[in-house]
Amino acid sequence: MIEDQEHLEEEPEEELAPALDMGVILISCADCNRPLLNMLKVRDSDDIYKMKVMCVNKKCTPDGERGESWVHTLKGQYFHSTIKQRDRVLSMVEEDGVMIVRLGKKR
After folding, report:
1. pLDDT, position 11
2. Is residue 9 a part of any domain in this protein?
3. How far is 36 from 30, CA to CA, in rounded Å?
4. Is 42 helix (H, G, I), strand (E, B) or coil?
5. Does residue 56 form part of some domain?
6. pTM for this one?
7. Is residue 82 a contact partner of residue 39, using CB atoms and an 8 Å limit?
8. Which conformational region is residue 97 in: left (phi greater than 0), alpha (psi within -120 to 50 degrees), or beta?
9. Nearest 5°: phi and psi at 62?
10. Which phi and psi (to 5°) does residue 7 adopt?
11. pLDDT tens for residues 27-71?
């Protein structure tokens, strides 16, 4: 026997929470253009950060050394994530007012 479909009430659609994403900044190596880090802005604020990311590639510069990104100035609050799943953040150290992020590969 076929049930009468007219009597079934549709469930109201759930309202989605507002997204936190206020913009993504992709930081790449200035020497080999390899994408290194995503910076996801989650909140506006007066916080200002300067950041430089060291490249994962061991020999991406002409002299066979690791390259680095340009210095990026970020305003607000951010989350970060590596581009490739095998990459990881080894350290974040402030030097002369610039946050230096060193990346490595998971083994």
Report:
1. 54
2. no
3. 10
4. strand
5. yes
6. 0.72
7. no
8. left
9. -60, -30
10. -85, -10
11. 999 989 999 999 988 888 898 989 999 998 877 877 777 899 999
Coil vs helix vs strand at 7: helix
pLDDT tens-digit series, residues 72-99: 999 988 888 888 888 899 999 999 999 9
Any residues with CB less than 8 A from the CB of 38 and at least 6 apart, and which?
A: 24, 25, 26, 27, 80, 81, 82, 83
Q: Which residue has the higher pLDDT, 19 or 44?
A: 44
Identity at 10, one-letter amino acid code: E
Question: Which residues span the domain enclosing 57?
Answer: 20-105
Token digits for 81? 């994530």
Count of the separate structural domains present in the chain: 1
Q: 11 by DSSP, 3-state: which?
A: coil
Tokens 């009468």 appear where? 4
